[in-house]
Design brief:
CATH superfamily of the largest domain: NAD(P)-binding Rossmann-like Domain
Number of domains: 2
Bound molecules: nicotinamide-adenine-dinucleotide
CATH class of the largest domain: Alpha Beta
Number of helices: 10
CATH architecture of the largest domain: 3-Layer(aba) Sandwich
Largest sheet: 7 strands, parallel
Length: 334
């Protein structure tokens, strides 16, 4: 890899984008980060950071000017609570961001374009049971994705294919399955389950009850951020054009996830279940057969080790804010 390879990471002020920037800079790339905001928890490692709203065409032209490769991560998104109650906002913003970014990449003659899709594109009818069969890439159709965020991602996967076939833009498509780790959102309503549970347990006292959304029997698999950026990089360097899962294939229930985090925290934690809260699909797991074949690699970090690092970071953040002193003694619904 030449020292002079220039790349842009959009969404570089966000969780995965920020980690990806650090990874690519360490690999010797010249990196431009672009986002509507700067990273929240630590300074960017990017050589250049542009604060731009990528819904707008001229900003996408600036973002992709003079770079060889585009890692397109910018999206208006969050955890299940945010996704299920902001469908119009999500499809409007992410459609504008993505279509303008890919067209600007084409116009600016960028050589490669990596689009970050999601496990939310998989059909609802394959995810009705907690003991779900792991999802293979070809099972995306007949389409029945999550109704908003998922449709936009699936549509954009097709846009990538048509830009590659008709315009020669060399595209990559990665489908993330629940990425977690430090320096990610842990409060405010956009956080995902590992961060939300870590926050609730950090704020709880030994023996407290925390609120769990749904009955807690819904299942997921979780992938640590270092594996995520390694996988993104490996996919970009491969010659594989079809969508590829990137996640862990160890599935567990939300109730089990609570138990794992409680053990890490060294607390006895009881659960109350709020059945009125959104809980997404009943079961979801990644089938990593194609990932192993294409990349000759798969995520390495165990859930326990990844969560221990993440919990420690969130606990430290709450401590710094003084939030822990205010924790409720009996029930934490935050
Ligand atoms: P994130 O919310 O932390 O990062 C997304 C970034 O996009 C944010 O910093 C946000 O400010 C930026 N953005 C939003 N609107 C913008 C705009 N108009 N102009 C410029 N920037 C804008 O999310 P993340 O977890 O880092 O996710 C990165 C990508 O991966 C997203 O496309 C997301 O849909 C996808 N993804 C993530 C997960 C996951 O588990 N984290 C799972 C599936 C897919």
């Amino acid at each position: 890899m030449s020292e002079k390879t220039r790349v842009v990471v959009t969404g570089a002020g966000g969780f995965i984008g920020h980690h990806l920037v650090k990874y690519l800079v360490a690999k010797g790339y010249w990196v431009r980060g672009v986002d509507i905001k700067e990273p929240e928890y630590e300074a960017t490692a990017a050589h250049e950071f542009l604060v731009l709203d990528l819904k707008y065409w001229e900003n996408c032209q600036k973002a992709t000017a003079g770079v060889d490769e585009v890692y397109a991560l910018a999206a208006n998104m969050g955890g299940i609570g945010f996704i299920e109650s902001n469908k119009g906002l999500i499809v409007r913003d992410s459609t504008l961001i993505n279509i303008h970014t890919i067209e600007a990449a084409r116009e600016n003659k960028c050589k490669r374009f990596l689009f970050t899709s999601s496990a939310c594109i998989y059909p609802g009818y394959r995810q009705k049971d907690p003991d779900v069969i792991p999802l293979k890439e070809e099972e995306a159709y007949p389409a029945d994705p999550e109704d908003g965020y998922g449709w936009e991602k699936l549509y954009m996967e097709r846009v990538c294919r048509h830009y590659r076939e008709d315009f020669g833009l060399d595209t990559r498509i990665v489908r993330f399955h629940n990425i977690f780790g430090p320096l990610g959102t842990y409060d405010g309503g956009r956080e995902k389950s590992p961060a939300a549970i870590s926050r609730k347990i950090s704020l709880a006292n030994d023996g407290d009850i925390i609120e769990v959304w749904g009955d807690g029997n819904q299942t997921r698999s979780y992938c640590y951020i270092d594996d995520c950026v390694e996988g993104i990089y490996r996919l970009m360097r491969s010659d594989f054009h079809e969508p590829l899962n990137l996640g862990q294939d160890r599935m567990l229930s939300i109730n089990e996830l609570v138990d794992v985090v409680a053990k890490i925290a060294g607390k006895t934690i009881y659960r109350s279940h709020d059945l009125t809260k959104p809980q997404g699909v009943r079961g979801r797991n990644s089938d990593n057969t194609l990932l192993r074949k294409v990349l000759g690699w798969e995520p390495q970090m165990s859930l326990e080790d990844g969560l221990a690092i993440t919990y420690k970071w969130i606990d430290g953040q709450l401590e710094k804010k003084g939030a822990k002193k205010k924790s409720a003694p009996v029930e934490t619904n935050a």
